[in-house]
Structures are given as C-alpha cells and as structure tokens.
Design brief:
The protein has five helices and eight strands, in the order E-E-E-H-E-E-H-E-H-H-E-H-E. It has one domain. The longest helix is centred in the middle third of the chain and has 25 residues. Strand 5, helix 2 and strand 6 form a beta-alpha-beta unit. With 172 residues, the protein is an alpha/beta fold. It starts with a strand and ends in an 8-residue tail after the last strand.
Amino acid sequence: MLNVIMESGMNFIADNTFHIERSPLHTNIGESIRTVEFIRVKGDKLIFLEAKTAFPKPGINPSAENPGKFAIVLKEICEKFIHSLNIYSSIKVGVSGTKLPEKFSPPDNVTLVFILVVKNHEIEWCRSIKAALVKILPSYLCRIWKPAVYVINYNTAIKYELAFMREENGNG
C-alpha cells in the first residue's frame, strides 16, 4: 500500500518520509518557526518539500499597502527551508531530545534538495520563482549545505515520482 501525504490538493508519495510540519517538535517550538510539509529520502537525496496551490507573480505593482507579495511569499519559503533544515539537524545531533520516525532512514551521505511544488504553474513561471529563490537563499547556507533547488509543478512532481494523480474513483 502506498503511503500518501495530501498537501495543497496534491498527493505526495510518503515512503521514507518525516512529516516535519505535523511533528510534535515543530508543534512545541512555536509559531515563529516555519517548516516545509515534509522531508523525504529518495535514493541518496534528502528532499525538503514545500507545496503551494498558487504563487504570486513577480513584479506585480508593489505599493505601500502591498510591498510585493511575491517577495514576501518567497522569503517565507526560504525560511521554511532553513528552519526545516535546522530542526532536522537538531534532531540528528541529539540536541532536540526528539528522534526521527522509525521508518525514516536517511543514508549517511546525502545530497540536499529543496523542492517547491506549485500545483498548476507553468514551467516558465516555475523558472522565474526558482531564480528568485536561489538569489535570496543565504550564501552561507549554499556554501555549507550545497542544496539543489527546484521549483516544479504537480505534473513534474508526478513525472519524478514525488507525487501521483489519484484516480477519481479512489483507486489511485
């Protein structure tokens, strides 16, 4: 039977997954800490996955009332990746007093991957979000952790076996 995490109207494959957003550690830390939906091991990849149904378009008339929704949401996504990496690392080194789920077993050597899935975005829109996201990730984080960064849509997530399309009759 396939393990599933449903987020933002998308069905994600949840084998070898730590559902960090629903973890007691995240709940106990407080609201100032943001996390991605989940962390998944796929081969030698440690994937930090954030899902969104939509994403603001870049450069749409910033004003005093709306200083740039694109920039604000982008900053929130960046914080989710960084906070999630810090929570995960605090568990791995033992300072959090929490353990990772038993069925979540990352290998010793992994490649770190940050993935933002925006449900119905066009690929070209995803590229502009990725470029902006990579630009605002702190340089220290990129030098230390060397994360690969992807912004994809749901169809691409399905193609790369991160998600699947549930059939309407429930047999998905």
